[in-house]
Design goal:
The protein is of the alpha+beta class. About 55% of the residues lie in helices and about 20% in strands. The chain folds into two domains: about 100 residues, Beta-Lactamase (2-Layer Sandwich); about 80 residues, Arc Repressor Mutant, subunit A. The protein has ten helices and five strands. Helix 6 crosses helix 7 and helix 7 crosses helix 9. The radius of gyration is 20 Å and the shape is elongated.
Length: about 180
């Protein structure tokens, strides 16, 4: 069962950071990618410390009665980042943070895009990551394929969509998405 849980945590599409009283004791791959690009917001440390103080004083439900969630924009990121904080208070308290990036691909209907341009599922996987700003090497690592395979898929995607590069790809897909939204209204 541990092997299955490790697989799930590794492939989780959100960042996961788990704190005990002393420090971070677990991060998944998405959280490591986030921490490689950005500093953990100071709000996280402040809230985490306040949570453990509330647990120690027996006032957790009084001081933290609802959801703990905030959004932050970082200077070097086109996205907003959502931080959801959860508490497990018994028997060994932990605080875990789920990190979600509001990405361009989350704003597009990727299934509709896949059908419109007759993309394969793998091409759609790669397209999603391109839209979210991944470099070829990052896509290869994330999908556990070679960088050459990523390039081959990108060539196919460009051909099917009728563009020559990432800029054209972004322009075409965003325009296509806006046009579809206007039709529905």
């Amino acid at each position: 069962m541990n092997e299955e849980i490790d697989f799930i945590l590794k492939k989780l599409p959100v960042g996961l950071i788990i704190f005990d009283r002393k420090s971070i004791f677990y991060t998944n791959r998405k959280a490591n990618n986030f921490l490689g690009r950005f500093e953990l917001p100071t709000e996280i440390t402040t809230i985490k410390n306040r949570i453990f103080d509330a647990i120690d004083s027996g006032r957790l439900s009084e001081l933290f009665p609802g959801e703990i969630c905030f959004t932050k924009k970082f200077n070097d990121s086109p996205s907003h980042w959502i931080f959801r904080i959860y508490i497990y208070d018994k028997p060994n308290p932990i605080v875990y943070i789920v990190i979600i990036e509001e990405t361009i691909s989350n704003k597009l209907n990727m299934n509709e895009t896949r059908q419109q341009f007759r993309l394969t599922r793998r091409e759609t996987d790669i397209l999603r990551r391109v839209l979210d700003g991944f470099k070829n090497a990052e896509i290869a690592e994330d999908l556990e394929i070679s960088e050459q395979t990523v390039k081959d898929h990108l060539s196919n995607i460009y051909m099917k969509i009728g563009v020559e590069n990432r800029t054209g790809l972004m322009r075409t897909l965003l325009y296509s998405s806006e046009a579809n939204t206007e039709k529905q209204e």
